[in-house]
Amino acid sequence: MGGFHAITNVCASGTVSVAKIRLQSDPVEARQKESLDELFSENITAKIIRTAQKHLSHNNPPSQYPHIVPQTGQDVGKYVSKGIDFWTCGFFPGSIYSLLERVIKYPNRLRAKDVELQSLRRTLERLGKTWSDPIHGESRLTNTHDLGFIMMTHMKPRWELFHDEKALNTIITAANNLYTRYNSTVGAIRCWDELVWTNAPHIRGMDENFIVIIDSLCNLDLLFYAAAHSGSSRLSDAAKHHAHTLIRTHLREEPTMCRQGFSGMLYSTGHVVSFCPETGCIKEKRTAQGFDTNSTWSRGQAWAILGYAQTYAWTKDETFLHVACGLSEYFLLRLEMAPSCVEIHCADGTTSGRYVPMWDFDAPIDKEGLLLRDTSAGTAAANGMLILFQALTGLGRYDMGKRYLKAALAIIEETISCSLASERAKLVTTENKDISVVDELEGSAFEAVLKNATVSNNAQGYAQIRDHGLVYADYYLIEFGTQLLRLGLA
């Protein structure tokens, strides 16, 4: 289990500190350093800029936003888009603004060669605003719980980097509209109005059903942020109630499972719960994207890790901290328990891949031997663990903090090692000081940064979207690198 040994070796050396990540020269640690350096590579910036420029053709101002990049078939290597009203629209402008923050605040960490810094900054500013501006109008939505994903990824940096009052107002408007979906009897925010996109019996009727999904935990950040800036405690109170409710209804205690070095309860997660809106009682539990109702869909587990880590950061309620740690431990344990076939043998004699999660921790390996992974689950979970590192370090629990930092680094390192698209791009500054993008190998292009993401593989779903590049897998990879910079860790 090469990935596990990588963590053990780094942990034993004591070389990871709040001030700096220091990696020694043995093959595993050298590979980790090389992979982590990729977080700041010209390739990532070039791919985001190329997609931003290319997909404005016949789409300016944007109404269609990058979503998935097929690895096979007719559209191989090219982004397939979704409409602006789809829940993923905010991730692509979010990637642009995460890179723009690096250019503004950490210019010495850029790896781009032969690119004029001011030109790069101007290009990212222009493209970021172009892709973000149309989303202001989505703040009016009251038919979705996903306003956090839609808004916070890019409107928050617009406010924090540029003091953009309109962006802050959009965040507050979106939060108030999200609040309209809160039901105090259930103690939660309605997520879906109906569940109709699988072959299982549909759940219809908002008067009889109140559907809540585990993903919703990541939208609470919007409510907390808006409450802090507007003084509206009803927003933060609703977010806290929602988070407490899902501990009871969506999290499953795993008392028979333990992971060395952690003495608390481990938690797995379910995906969908339908409540009676009048009584708050649970009517039924399901999955929509995982393997089955009782399995642990890896991205659902990741959403819970990230959501509860964010919720603790806002509330300082240690209930949420304990839960986030227990969710992380279960996620890591299931990675370590995976069969040996998940490992890829590297040229240096080590292995990699154990820390790139399968799409569902309980799904059988494909009959044809396909290891169906979900890189978006890994990158989202790693971001949550980075928040836990910061939180625990702030509490003086340094050993536990480093535990999650090292785990997060292992996930990102192996994700890059195993799933970074080999088709690379680079930046070029023209004579007019404009930024353009070319393939490193002419004719070899793949628009996403990562491969091997799975949106859904539920056998009862009307469509299985698997083994693709995915806009939010890339966003969480980029945001992880930017967060390392914010923490002084890279």
UniProtKB/TrEMBL annotation:
<comment type="similarity">
    <text>Belongs to the glycosyl hydrolase 88 family.</text>
</comment>
<dbReference type="InterPro" id="IPR012341">
    <property type="entry name" value="6hp_glycosidase-like_sf"/>
</dbReference>
<dbReference type="InterPro" id="IPR052369">
    <property type="entry name" value="UG_Glycosaminoglycan_Hydrolase"/>
</dbReference>
<dbReference type="GO" id="GO:0000272">
    <property type="term" value="P:polysaccharide catabolic process"/>
</dbReference>
<dbReference type="InterPro" id="IPR008928">
    <property type="entry name" value="6-hairpin_glycosidase_sf"/>
</dbReference>
<protein>
    <recommendedName>
        <fullName>Unsaturated glucuronyl hydrolase</fullName>
    </recommendedName>
</protein>
<dbReference type="GO" id="GO:0052757">
    <property type="term" value="F:chondroitin hydrolase activity"/>
</dbReference>
<keyword id="KW-0378">Hydrolase</keyword>
